[in-house]
Amino acid sequence: MNIMDFNVKKLAADAGTFLSRAVQFTEEKLGQAEKTELDAHLENLLSKAECTKIWTEKIMKQTEVLLQPNPNARIEEFVYEKLDRKAPSRSNNPELLGQYMIDAGTEFGPGTAYGNALIKCGETQKRIGTADRELIQTSALNFLTPLRNFIEGDYKTIAKERKLLQNKRLDLDAAKTRLKKAKAAEARNSSEQELRITQSEFDRQAEITRLLLEGISSTHAHHLRCLNDFVEAQMTYYAQCYQYMLDLQKQLGSFPSNYLCNNNQTAATPTPSVLPNVIGSSAMASTSGLVITPPPANLNDVKEYNGSRKARVLYDYDAANSTELSLLADEVITVFSVIGMDSDWLMGERGNQKGKVPITYLELLN
Length: 366
Fold this sequence. Notes:
This protein is of the alpha+beta class. The protein has helices at residues 3-29, 40-67, 71-82, 93-108, 113-181, 185-213, 216-253, 275-286, and strands at 309-313, 332-336, 345-350, 353-358, 362-364.
């Protein structure tokens, strides 16, 4: 027998097997043939694997959207990944914003209040951009890659073995059907032998598939560790961003409000448009025999009141020099104004300690 004859016979056998499976599958769908059911444990494992695959894909894709909201950038990264090439490094949005702020502050003049503030904000934005880049890299390595490996590796193997199991079941049920239809003794003997072979192959494939599916529990345990890594990366990122912004707020809060503006002109004095309302309120309150002084609308208004007030500290503050008072978040201190003091500062008092404190770090209490 030459190679051509062998290939022809093999193709004929494959075609016969395919036709037999197609007939069996069609008759099952029409209710004209019996179907061998898988055991309940194997069915549960198959359902668990399919569920794991569906939700892993959804979580993976949405994580990619979270880390890279720009769809064009995601497509570009996907193309470079398939080409096995490194994507070109580009500045992310915080880094771009930070550079624009630094350039603008340099143009306006680092010696001006606005220019100096822009530069400080720009530097903070660039640090946030660096932290964002680190979050993407860490999450891609420790979270997205294991999820993608499962979808493109382990689950593809499971799907392949599951398809083989389906084919072996169709072969088994087709053999059962042929045995039922066999009438001659010789045909029955042949059908019984075929049934034993197909039953053995089906049982073997069911065992292989079951062993693979039982690995899904290990997959869940591995993905749980990856999820912890992702949460830790996010925690680090948000903690860095919070600290960067807190430091920036302290720097901006230290700017004196009477700092000369960019045009070297002092800020215009606001018009007292609210005085009629205040006077009216006081007049209405005095009709009952009581004279009530309205509380200040904000911390700046404490300047207009004599005496001291209580204030709650919003954030930690480290004194820059001996004239300032260090603060701890949530503590309550006494504050009062001093004639000639900068409008962004008050005098703070805690026991025997006294010093200047920035208004933006305080919440005035009634």
